[in-house]
From TrEMBL:
Keywords: Membrane, Transmembrane, Transmembrane helix. The chain crosses the membrane at residues 12-28, 86-108, 144-166, 173-190, 196-215, 222-241, 288-307, 319-341, 353-373, 380-397, 531-550. It comes from Candidatus Woesebacteria bacterium GW2011_GWA1_41_7. It comes from the Bacteria. This is Membrane protein 6-pyruvoyl-tetrahydropterin synthase-related domain-containing protein.
Length: 554
């Protein structure tokens, strides 16, 4: 067994890559497949457009809403699209770039979960837990049914956050773990706001429990933890603070009502896997199944843990109890009896789907493998878990139908410029919350600038956002610019800045131009507030990098 352990450490990465193949095999087919969030292909296209206009960090994209643009990455998690943009700049298509991000999330999830579990479990059980973490039916749903790139990336980061919190509260730790904590918290926030909001409270509970019951030097642990978390929040503050603060500038609206999306308890244990949608009642055509391997681990893990309860250390008991608590709280939050919390906790309705807590279930189940660790057959069972998890679930990790669609299909479907296709007109874009100055969505393409008076003599488009316009009129008139009014937009008349506002009915940029001949500039750039937070994030990130590279022990 010692020889197996040494070989596992030596060949860990090849083993993980090999074990990941059944989960990602269908990603090697040409083109994209049918998923709920195929619009992410178009969003990556918009990210690419913003980067190539040197809008860093990208926030306002130029083409959505019939060309009125949208502050998409001011509110939508940007990190998965940063990753996708890297691959796209390397020459991969938009579709392939997204699929590469999907595919890499699997081995990275397995690797980081293994590293986290190894703090408490033997090597063999840690590997079993990492495989169980990947081969849960909900993970297949995320990739091949929903296609939600943010949650897919977040699954790889969650174990790193948990591992860093454990390391921060260990008696012997390196200062670099403050930096790892910061970068993991920041990347989780940037990967998926909802997943971060869901997991961070659980992670903080583990951190606080360890400081209270495990750590001897509590003040030092508190300082390390506070510093790491603070640096994580300030490293990502360029995104999350404007997203929260400027959310008040948008209509409060969600496409889906959480009341309609509580799974029935029997759906967790019913071996069903489908490629459809979540609907009111127990008639969903998508799966909420825990998986027979996961269910078996929960039941056996709890029983075996209780049978040898006294043999577990205090640290192990806290860890196991934390896993059980995540599991039970998540099940409760997916049950209609938790509706009072969904009504009253801040921002929780934005989750839209209570079953999103399945992500926490998937994370918690491998922790319960600790219940096997005090038994001689525990290591043999670890092999059984690996085999069962893959054999019983790998067939979920496949496309519902072969579509073979390339970039062109998604650009035509979701990008309305230079003309809006019939497919685009059917989408409605209800997922985009309108700015408050907008009373109705645009229904057609408009010229970049327009006015009731034919006073615009020339329009020179600098890029997809900015333009210089020449006007000539005997009387003053109202000037309209076909982009949504939002912080970051500015206008000048003859090089003098003027005040702009939201026009009716589309919330377009509008302002008054006096009589005579004038040169008008309309342009987008970081607002002063955002520039401040960009600087804070950049400084914090530099500090984090220095901490990670530090070799000094403390």
């Amino acid at each position: 067994m010692e020889k197996i352990r040494k070989n596992l450490n030596k060949f860990l990465i090849p083993v993980i890559l090999l074990l990941s193949i059944p989960a990602i095999r269908y990603l090697f087919d040409y083109g994209f497949f049918g998923v709920s969030d195929d619009l992410h292909i178009a969003w990556l296209y918009e990210m690419d457009r913003a980067f190539k206009m040197f809008q860093i960090p990208p926030r306002f994209v130029p083409d959505l809403s019939f060309g009125f643009g949208y502050p998409l990455f001011n509110f939508v998690y940007p990190l998965p699209f940063y990753f996708g943009e890297i691959f796209h700049l390397l020459g991969f298509s938009l579709v392939d770039s997204v699929k590469i991000v999907f595919g890499l999330s699997v081995p990275f999830s397995m690797y980081f979960m293994y590293k986290f579990l190894k703090e408490f479990l033997p090597h063999e059980l840690s590997l079993a837990g990492s495989v169980l973490y990947v081969y849960a039916p909900y993970r297949a749903t995320e990739i091949f049914v929903r296609g939600t790139i943010g949650e897919i990336v977040a699954f790889a980061i969650i174990p790193v956050v948990a591992l860093s919190f454990v390391k921060l509260t260990s008696e012997r730790t390196s200062i670099k773990w403050i930096g790892v904590t910061a970068i993991s918290v920041a990347t989780l926030v940037l990967s998926h706001n909802i997943m971060a909001y869901m997991f961070i409270p659980f992670a903080l509970l583990l951190l606080v429990s360890r400081i209270i019951f495990i750590v001897k030097n509590k003040k030092e642990a508190l300082f390390r933890s506070f510093t790491g978390i603070l640096l994580g929040l300030t490293s990502s503050i360029y995104f999350w603070f404007p997203a929260i603060y400027e959310s008040s500038l948008m209509h409060y609206d969600t496409v889906f009502n959480f009341y309609d999306h509580y799974p029935a308890l029997k759906q967790f244990i019913t071996p069903y896997f489908g490629y459809g949608a979540s609907v009111p009642g127990p008639y969903d055509t998508m799966s909420f199944y825990f998986g027979i391997t996961g269910i078996a681990v929960v039941v056996l893990g709890m029983v075996l843990f209780l049978l040898k309860f006294k043999k577990y250390s205090r640290e192990e008991k806290i860890f196991f109890g934390w896993g059980v608590m995540i599991l039970l709280v998540s099940i409760f939050m997916m049950n209609f009896r938790s509706a009072f919390l969904w009504r009253n906790l801040p921002l929780l309705p934005y989750f839209q789907f209570p079953w999103r807590f399945l992500a926490m279930v998937v994370f918690s189940i491998p922790i319960l493998l600790l219940g096997f660790s005090k038994y001689k057959f525990g290591k043999i069972l670890s092999l059984a878990v690996v085999v069962a998890a893959i054999a019983l679930n790998f067939n979920y990790f496949k496309t519902s139908e072969y579509l073979g669609r390339g970039d062109g299909y998604y650009i035509e479907r979701y990008i309305p410029l230079p003309t809006a296709s019939e497919e685009y007109r059917k989408t409605g874009e209800e997922y985009l919350r309108l700015p408050k100055g907008t009373s109705q969505r645009p229904d057609k393409n408009y010229p970049r600038a327009y006015a009731d008076d034919p006073a615009i003599t020339e329009i020179k488009e600098i890029n997809a956002l900015n333009a210089v316009i020449v006007t000539d009129s005997e009387e003053g008139f109202t000037f309209n610019y076909s982009k949504y009014y939002f912080p970051g937009w500015f206008a000048k008349i003859d090089e003098e800045e003027v005040e702009i506002s939201a026009g009716k009915p589309y919330g377009q940029i509008t302002f008054e131009i006096p009589a005579g001949k004038h040169t008008v500039e309309v342009y987008y750039q970081e607002s002063p507030m955002r520039l401040l937070f960009d600087a804070v994030s950049l400084f914090s990130l530099g500090t984090v990098i220095l901490l990670i590279l530090a070799k000094k022990k403390k």
